[in-house]
Amino acid sequence: MDYGDKLFWLSVLIQRRYAQICAEYDLTSLQATLLCAIKDEPRRMAYLAASLGMTKNALSQLVDRTERRHLVSRASSEQDRRVIMLSVTPAGKVLAEAVFAETTKRLPDIAENLGADDRRDLERLATAVVDASGVSAATSS
């Protein structure tokens, strides 16, 4: 296997673990990611679509499903009524915090068979990749 193959399978491992955690909270991976992206502050729908790599239509459908569960709410921006802001409800906030905490606690288990030095290297490299991508700034406050 080459480097691309390894990254593919690493992605599969991460996605599978994340999906397992989300299922324990009766959420899809996309619902959990959405909740975690807005858990600390409301975000513009257009910003979320771009940050999460979704079309506006796909995000709207995801929000509709999540809103029916009373986990998020939409409101027009006070500054510009054309802008739709998305925020978590109190129930959504509790769920987002729980999923986020459980994920950050259990996701590192995928590297449990590595030695301490390799785990530190993986942490350093993962941090560098995420920081360079800008994704953490896009979904955290």
From TrEMBL:
Q: Which residues form the HTH marR-type domain?
A: 1-131
Which positions make up the signal peptide?
none
Task: Cite the InterPro entries for this sequence.
Answer: HTH_MarR-typ (IPR000835), MarR/SlyA-like (IPR039422), WH-like_DNA-bd_sf (IPR036388), WH_DNA-bd_sf (IPR036390)
Q: Which domain of life is it from?
A: Bacteria
Question: What Gene3D superfamilies does the entry give?
Answer: Winged helix-like DNA-binding domain superfamily/Winged helix DNA-binding domain
Q: What is this protein called?
A: MarR family transcriptional regulator
Q: What is the native source organism of this protein?
A: Streptomyces olivaceus
